[in-house]
Specification:
This protein has 229 residues and is mostly helical. The chain has one domain. 82% of the residues lie in helices and 0% in strands. α4 packs parallel to α7, α4 crosses α8 and α8 packs antiparallel against α9. The protein is globular. The mean pLDDT is 78. This is Urease accessory protein UreH-like transmembrane domain-containing protein. Keywords: Membrane, Transmembrane, Transmembrane helix. InterPro entries: UreH-like_TM_dom. It comes from Thiocystis violascens (strain ATCC 17096 / DSM 198 / 6111) (Chromatium violascens).
Protein backbone atom coordinates (compact mmCIF):
# COMPACT_ATOMS: atom_id res chain seq x y z
CA UNK A 1 0.00 0.00 0.00
CA UNK A 2 1.42 3.40 -0.89
CA UNK A 3 1.65 6.16 1.72
CA UNK A 4 -1.19 8.37 0.38
CA UNK A 5 -3.64 5.45 0.45
CA UNK A 6 -2.50 4.52 3.95
CA UNK A 7 -3.21 8.11 5.02
CA UNK A 8 -6.68 7.84 3.52
CA UNK A 9 -7.32 4.67 5.54
CA UNK A 10 -6.18 6.35 8.75
CA UNK A 11 -8.37 9.35 7.96
CA UNK A 12 -11.36 7.06 7.35
CA UNK A 13 -10.78 5.39 10.72
CA UNK A 14 -10.59 8.76 12.49
CA UNK A 15 -13.69 10.03 10.68
CA UNK A 16 -15.52 6.92 11.86
CA UNK A 17 -14.33 7.46 15.41
CA UNK A 18 -15.03 11.19 15.52
CA UNK A 19 -18.24 10.87 13.57
CA UNK A 20 -19.35 8.32 16.13
CA UNK A 21 -21.01 11.13 18.05
CA UNK A 22 -23.49 11.20 15.17
CA UNK A 23 -23.85 7.40 15.39
CA UNK A 24 -24.55 7.63 19.11
CA UNK A 25 -27.50 9.95 18.63
CA UNK A 26 -28.83 8.50 15.36
CA UNK A 27 -28.35 4.80 16.11
CA UNK A 28 -28.88 4.85 19.87
CA UNK A 29 -32.54 3.93 19.53
CA UNK A 30 -31.73 1.22 17.00
CA UNK A 31 -29.12 -0.37 19.26
CA UNK A 32 -31.59 -0.25 22.14
CA UNK A 33 -34.24 -1.97 20.04
CA UNK A 34 -31.75 -4.63 18.95
CA UNK A 35 -30.89 -5.27 22.59
CA UNK A 36 -34.58 -5.59 23.42
CA UNK A 37 -34.94 -7.81 20.37
CA UNK A 38 -32.71 -10.44 21.95
CA UNK A 39 -34.42 -13.47 23.36
CA UNK A 40 -35.50 -12.83 26.95
CA UNK A 41 -33.28 -15.67 28.20
CA UNK A 42 -30.22 -13.92 26.75
CA UNK A 43 -31.20 -10.53 28.16
CA UNK A 44 -31.69 -12.06 31.59
CA UNK A 45 -27.89 -12.42 31.90
CA UNK A 46 -26.09 -9.26 30.71
CA UNK A 47 -22.76 -10.98 30.15
CA UNK A 48 -24.41 -13.23 27.55
CA UNK A 49 -25.31 -10.20 25.42
CA UNK A 50 -21.66 -9.33 24.68
CA UNK A 51 -21.18 -11.86 21.83
CA UNK A 52 -24.40 -10.63 20.23
CA UNK A 53 -23.26 -6.99 20.39
CA UNK A 54 -20.03 -8.00 18.65
CA UNK A 55 -21.98 -10.02 16.07
CA UNK A 56 -24.23 -7.03 15.29
CA UNK A 57 -21.30 -4.66 14.90
CA UNK A 58 -18.77 -6.85 13.12
CA UNK A 59 -21.41 -7.80 10.56
CA UNK A 60 -22.26 -4.11 10.19
CA UNK A 61 -18.58 -3.38 9.47
CA UNK A 62 -18.55 -6.24 6.95
CA UNK A 63 -21.56 -4.63 5.27
CA UNK A 64 -19.61 -1.40 4.98
CA UNK A 65 -16.80 -3.38 3.35
CA UNK A 66 -19.19 -4.76 0.72
CA UNK A 67 -20.55 -1.26 0.05
CA UNK A 68 -16.98 0.06 -0.23
CA UNK A 69 -16.11 -2.63 -2.77
CA UNK A 70 -19.18 -1.70 -4.85
CA UNK A 71 -18.37 2.01 -4.79
CA UNK A 72 -14.68 1.36 -5.40
CA UNK A 73 -15.71 -0.67 -8.44
CA UNK A 74 -17.85 2.25 -9.60
CA UNK A 75 -14.80 4.47 -9.24
CA UNK A 76 -12.78 2.06 -11.35
CA UNK A 77 -15.38 2.37 -14.12
CA UNK A 78 -15.37 6.17 -13.88
CA UNK A 79 -11.60 6.27 -14.15
CA UNK A 80 -11.84 4.56 -17.53
CA UNK A 81 -13.96 7.40 -18.91
CA UNK A 82 -11.15 9.94 -18.79
CA UNK A 83 -7.51 10.38 -17.90
CA UNK A 84 -6.80 8.33 -14.76
CA UNK A 85 -4.98 11.16 -12.99
CA UNK A 86 -7.50 13.88 -13.83
CA UNK A 87 -10.53 11.79 -12.88
CA UNK A 88 -8.96 10.51 -9.67
CA UNK A 89 -7.96 14.00 -8.56
CA UNK A 90 -11.50 15.14 -9.26
CA UNK A 91 -12.93 12.33 -7.13
CA UNK A 92 -10.55 13.07 -4.26
CA UNK A 93 -11.47 16.76 -4.45
CA UNK A 94 -15.14 15.80 -4.26
CA UNK A 95 -14.35 13.54 -1.29
CA UNK A 96 -12.61 16.44 0.47
CA UNK A 97 -15.63 18.67 -0.09
CA UNK A 98 -17.93 15.92 1.20
CA UNK A 99 -15.77 15.65 4.33
CA UNK A 100 -16.17 19.38 4.94
CA UNK A 101 -19.93 19.03 4.52
CA UNK A 102 -19.82 16.10 6.92
CA UNK A 103 -18.01 18.21 9.51
CA UNK A 104 -20.64 20.93 9.16
CA UNK A 105 -23.31 18.26 9.54
CA UNK A 106 -21.72 16.78 12.67
CA UNK A 107 -21.31 20.20 14.25
CA UNK A 108 -24.94 21.07 13.57
CA UNK A 109 -24.05 24.10 11.42
CA UNK A 110 -25.45 22.90 8.08
CA UNK A 111 -27.54 19.76 7.58
CA UNK A 112 -27.24 19.42 3.82
CA UNK A 113 -26.24 15.75 4.15
CA UNK A 114 -29.60 15.02 5.76
CA UNK A 115 -30.92 15.11 2.18
CA UNK A 116 -28.78 12.03 1.39
CA UNK A 117 -30.26 10.26 4.40
CA UNK A 118 -33.80 10.99 3.22
CA UNK A 119 -32.99 9.61 -0.23
CA UNK A 120 -31.49 6.50 1.34
CA UNK A 121 -34.77 5.80 3.12
CA UNK A 122 -36.05 4.42 -0.18
CA UNK A 123 -33.53 1.57 0.06
CA UNK A 124 -34.06 1.06 3.78
CA UNK A 125 -37.82 0.66 3.40
CA UNK A 126 -37.12 -2.38 1.23
CA UNK A 127 -34.68 -3.89 3.71
CA UNK A 128 -36.50 -3.13 6.96
CA UNK A 129 -39.07 -5.95 6.64
CA UNK A 130 -36.18 -8.44 6.52
CA UNK A 131 -35.02 -7.36 9.98
CA UNK A 132 -38.46 -8.01 11.47
CA UNK A 133 -38.32 -11.61 10.31
CA UNK A 134 -35.10 -12.11 12.29
CA UNK A 135 -36.59 -11.03 15.63
CA UNK A 136 -36.42 -12.12 18.38
CA UNK A 137 -32.72 -12.86 18.06
CA UNK A 138 -31.85 -16.29 19.46
CA UNK A 139 -28.62 -17.12 17.59
CA UNK A 140 -25.42 -15.32 16.65
CA UNK A 141 -26.17 -15.90 12.96
CA UNK A 142 -29.44 -13.99 13.35
CA UNK A 143 -27.57 -11.15 15.06
CA UNK A 144 -24.99 -11.09 12.26
CA UNK A 145 -27.72 -10.98 9.60
CA UNK A 146 -29.37 -7.98 11.27
CA UNK A 147 -25.98 -6.31 11.68
CA UNK A 148 -25.26 -6.71 7.96
CA UNK A 149 -28.61 -5.10 7.09
CA UNK A 150 -27.85 -2.33 9.60
CA UNK A 151 -24.96 -1.24 7.38
CA UNK A 152 -27.47 -0.04 4.77
CA UNK A 153 -29.40 2.33 7.03
CA UNK A 154 -29.51 5.85 5.50
CA UNK A 155 -26.65 7.81 7.06
CA UNK A 156 -24.96 10.97 5.81
CA UNK A 157 -21.79 9.94 7.63
CA UNK A 158 -21.54 6.63 5.78
CA UNK A 159 -22.49 8.13 2.43
CA UNK A 160 -19.78 10.77 2.76
CA UNK A 161 -17.07 8.16 3.26
CA UNK A 162 -18.46 6.10 0.37
CA UNK A 163 -17.62 9.02 -1.92
CA UNK A 164 -14.00 8.63 -0.83
CA UNK A 165 -14.27 4.88 -1.50
CA UNK A 166 -15.30 5.77 -5.05
CA UNK A 167 -12.19 7.95 -5.35
CA UNK A 168 -9.89 4.99 -4.60
CA UNK A 169 -10.78 3.61 -8.02
CA UNK A 170 -10.53 0.00 -6.84
CA UNK A 171 -12.98 -2.49 -5.26
CA UNK A 172 -10.27 -3.78 -2.91
CA UNK A 173 -9.16 -0.31 -1.82
CA UNK A 174 -12.76 0.85 -1.47
CA UNK A 175 -13.54 -2.15 0.73
CA UNK A 176 -10.42 -1.52 2.83
CA UNK A 177 -11.31 2.12 3.30
CA UNK A 178 -14.86 1.35 4.45
CA UNK A 179 -13.60 -1.40 6.77
CA UNK A 180 -11.23 1.14 8.34
CA UNK A 181 -14.14 3.55 8.75
CA UNK A 182 -16.33 0.84 10.26
CA UNK A 183 -13.67 -0.13 12.78
CA UNK A 184 -13.50 3.52 13.81
CA UNK A 185 -17.21 3.48 14.64
CA UNK A 186 -16.93 0.34 16.80
CA UNK A 187 -15.99 1.96 20.15
CA UNK A 188 -18.97 4.31 20.05
CA UNK A 189 -21.60 1.80 18.96
CA UNK A 190 -20.33 -0.94 21.24
CA UNK A 191 -20.49 1.68 23.99
CA UNK A 192 -24.19 2.16 23.32
CA UNK A 193 -24.86 -1.54 23.50
CA UNK A 194 -22.88 -2.09 26.67
CA UNK A 195 -23.49 1.19 28.51
CA UNK A 196 -27.10 1.70 27.44
CA UNK A 197 -28.07 5.39 27.20
CA UNK A 198 -25.04 6.82 29.02
CA UNK A 199 -22.89 7.02 25.88
CA UNK A 200 -25.69 8.63 23.88
CA UNK A 201 -26.26 11.28 26.55
CA UNK A 202 -22.58 12.23 26.40
CA UNK A 203 -22.74 12.58 22.61
CA UNK A 204 -25.73 14.90 22.83
CA UNK A 205 -23.52 17.62 24.30
CA UNK A 206 -23.20 20.27 21.61
CA UNK A 207 -19.52 21.04 22.24
CA UNK A 208 -18.52 17.40 21.69
CA UNK A 209 -20.32 17.30 18.34
CA UNK A 210 -18.80 20.66 17.36
CA UNK A 211 -15.24 19.61 18.20
CA UNK A 212 -15.72 16.41 16.19
CA UNK A 213 -17.16 18.46 13.32
CA UNK A 214 -14.20 20.86 13.32
CA UNK A 215 -11.71 17.99 13.23
CA UNK A 216 -13.49 16.34 10.30
CA UNK A 217 -13.59 19.70 8.48
CA UNK A 218 -9.84 19.85 9.08
CA UNK A 219 -9.42 16.47 7.37
CA UNK A 220 -11.37 17.72 4.37
CA UNK A 221 -9.36 20.93 4.10
CA UNK A 222 -6.12 18.95 4.39
CA UNK A 223 -7.24 16.64 1.55
CA UNK A 224 -7.93 19.67 -0.67
CA UNK A 225 -4.63 21.28 0.31
CA UNK A 226 -2.76 18.11 -0.74
CA UNK A 227 -4.36 18.29 -4.17
CA UNK A 228 -3.23 21.87 -4.81
CA UNK A 229 0.11 21.59 -2.99
Amino acid sequence: MDAPLFQVYITAFLVGFLGGVHCLTMCGGLVGSLTLGLDARIRAEPWRMLPYQFAYNLARVAGYGVAGALFGGLGALLLQLDSFQVMQRGLYAFAGIMMILLGLYLGGWWRLLAVAERLGLILWRRLQPLTRRLLPVRTLSQAAAIGFLWAWIPCGLVYSVLITATATGSPANGAGLMLAFGLGTLPNLLGIGLLAGAAARIAERAWIRQVAGLLVIGFGLYALWQLVG
